[in-house]
Amino acid sequence: MGSGRLIGIDETGSFGEHKFCLVVAVESQNPGDGTRRHNLPKKRRGALIRAEEPERDFRFIHLKPEMEDWVNGHAIGLQEVARAHLLIQLGFDPTSEKAFIDAYRNPSAFARGIKDVLYGEYGGIPRGSVICRRNADNQYPIVRRAHERGYGLLDSYEFFSSLCVPFGREHFERLSLGANGGSHKKPEYVNIPPSRRGIVRPYG
C-alpha cells in the first residue's frame, strides 16, 4: 500500500504547563519535504488552523499525565508507543514510506523504542524508514509542518476531535507486549474518512 509517502511527527504542549500534550502527524507525497535542510524559515508561532481549511492533512493523539502510570512494568515508554501507534493507525508501510520524528529524548534510544513497537507489528523495519532526530522540526519541512499544526491545535484540538486517533490503555499494553514478545503480525486496516489515505484503525 506504500507509495513513497512521508510522515512527519512532532509534539506540542506539556504535562507540566498545559496538563496535556498532542502528538501530531502530517503526511506528504513531496520528496522534498523529507530533505534535511539548515535554512528553514523561522517557525510560525501564529500558524493557527482554520476551521474551513480543506486540506486536513494531520492526525493527532491526545496524551494526559495520568497515562504515564501505564508504563509501570513495561519496557517501552508512553511517548514511543504513542508515536508508533500513530504510524500504525496511518497505515505506515516501512518498506516504501518514511517517517521523520522529532526526538522526545535521546534520539537513538527513542528511535529504538519506536522501532521495537513497529517490529512487533510488522516483523521487520528496514533501515532508514524511521528517522528520529533532536530538533527535527528545524531540519525537515515535513516535521516543521507537524510542529505548526500542533501549535495551532493547542487551543482548538477539541474542535478537531474527529482527527484525534483513539489511544487508550488497551492500545498501550497490546503494543508494549507486542514489542517485548514480538507478535510479528501485520495489522489489518479499515477505511475511515476523512483521511486522504483513509487508513485509521480503531481497536475494539
Summarize the entry for a quick read.
With about 200 residues, the chain is an alpha/beta fold. The chain has a single domain (about 5-35, about 55-180), classed as Nucleotidyltransferase, domain 5. The chain has helices spanning about 80-90, 105-120, 140-155, 170-180, and strands at about 5-15, 20-30, 60-65, 100, 130-135.
Structural description of this entry:
This protein is α/β, with parallel strands linked by helices. It has one domain (6-33, 56-181): Ribonuclease H-like superfamily/Ribonuclease H (Nucleotidyltransferase, domain 5, 2-Layer Sandwich). Helices cover 26% and strands 16% of the residues. It is built from 4 helices and 5 strands, in the order βββαβαβαα. It has a 5-stranded mixed sheet with strand order 3-2-1-4-5. The longest helix is centred in the middle third of the chain and has 16 residues, at 107-122.
Euclidean distance between termini CA atoms: 23 Å
Shape: globular
In CATH, what is the homologous superfamily?
A: Ribonuclease H-like superfamily/Ribonuclease H
Secondary-structure element order, as H and E? EEEHEHEHH
Which value, in Å, is the CA radius of gyration? Answer: 16 Å
Structural class: alpha/beta
User: Which topology does CATH recognise?
Assistant: Nucleotidyltransferase, domain 5
SS element count, helices: 4
Largest sheet: 5 strands, mixed
| Helix content class | 25-40%
CATH class: Alpha Beta
Q: List low-confidence stretches.
A: 46-54, 181-204
CATH architecture: 2-Layer Sandwich
Overall mean confidence score, pLDDT: 81
Q: How many distinct beta strands?
A: 5
Indicate the proportion of strand residues: 15-25%
